[in-house]
Specification:
mainly alpha; 14 helices
């Protein structure tokens, strides 16, 4: 019982850390003038380098890369497609919109886990997910006509890809985290060389993208490790803590002021995440 509780607590902490770190993605993307594929190239290249250092330090290169199996390869491919949509989305629509569309991930993950694994989402997670959707609806209602459809569609695919990744890790918890994350970045590098001009970027821009790569590596590893310890719906629900945080950063750094409805919707989203954890904790302890 203690072991289960500890594993779940660790999962919660890892996913929260990942969400807070991921919330900086829009800030990095907006601060960089280079194109989306240039960002994908440099961020991916150095995310791979940092991950290799991490696995060498842990002496886990072989299990992370050589023994990742089909589930690890699937996570890498899905993650690559999500990243290919995620970064350009910030170039075509607002940081708030990307974050808010991502908020639909919990219900997507819960449905996929039910369809594929037969994992029934608890009533608490479903209610929290519905409250989350209500928060999203309120926020979007305050910005009709102010977003770009292409960017929103890219963000929708990103949300679906993340949900699929959560379910794969839940279905196959032995799947390594670092290896598939690095491979997902590696898969995009040839495309970035063809579709972008990363070798023409300035050194200050490259330095910023290197930092972005480190942040991405940390967030990806902590998210994958946390997803192994929690139900898919709960993992994705916790991960949307970035939804109210990312627009706040955009407001402070780029004067991208959210509508009043964004504050109300963001508060509902945050309340749903916190409540889902506080209310479920006694039941987990009792079990």
């Amino acid at each position: 019982m203690v072991k289960t509780f500890t594993s779940r607590s660790t999962g919660i902490i890892l996913v929260i850390i990942s969400a807070l770190v991921f919330s900086s993605a829009g800030i990095f993307t907006r601060a960089i003038t280079a194109g989306a594929w240039d960002i994908i190239f440099w961020r991916g290249l150095f995310a791979v380098c940092f991950t290799l250092v991490y696995t060498a330090w842990r002496r886990s290169f072989r299990p992370e890369f050589m023994l990742m199996g089909k589930s690890g390869l699937a996570c890498a491919i899905v993650g690559a497609s999500g990243t290919a949509a995620y970064i350009p989305a910030f170039k075509f629509t607002t940081i708030a919109n990307v974050s808010l569309i991502y908020a639909a991930t919990p219900l997507i993950a819960a449905f996929l886990a039910w369809w594929w694994m037969g994992e029934r989402a608890t009533k608490l997670v479903l209610v929290a997910g519905l409250v989350t959707l209500l928060g999203v609806a309120i926020v979007v209602s305050g910005s009709f006509g102010g977003f770009h459809l292409g960017g929103d569609l890219l963000a929708c695919w990103m949300a679906l890809a993340m949900a699929i990744g959560f379910v794969i890790y839940r279905k196959y918890p032995a799947t390594p985290a670092a290896g598939p994350s690095a491979l997902s970045s590696l898969l995009l590098i040839p495309f970035a060389l063809v579709l972008g001009t990363p070798l023409q970027d300035s050194w200050p821009e490259i330095a910023t993208m290197i930092a972005f790569g480190l942040v991405f590596a940390i967030a990806s590893i902590t998210l994958s490790e946390g997803a192994k310890r929690l139900p898919a719906g709960e993992t994705s629900l916790l991960s949307i803590l970035e939804v109210p945080v990312a627009p706040l950063f955009a407001w402070l750094l780029f004067s991208e002021v959210p509508a009043g409805a964004s504050f109300v919707g963001g508060a509902l989203i945050l309340a749903a995440v916190v409540a889902s954890q506080v209310l479920v904790m006694p039941a987990k302890v009792a079990a």
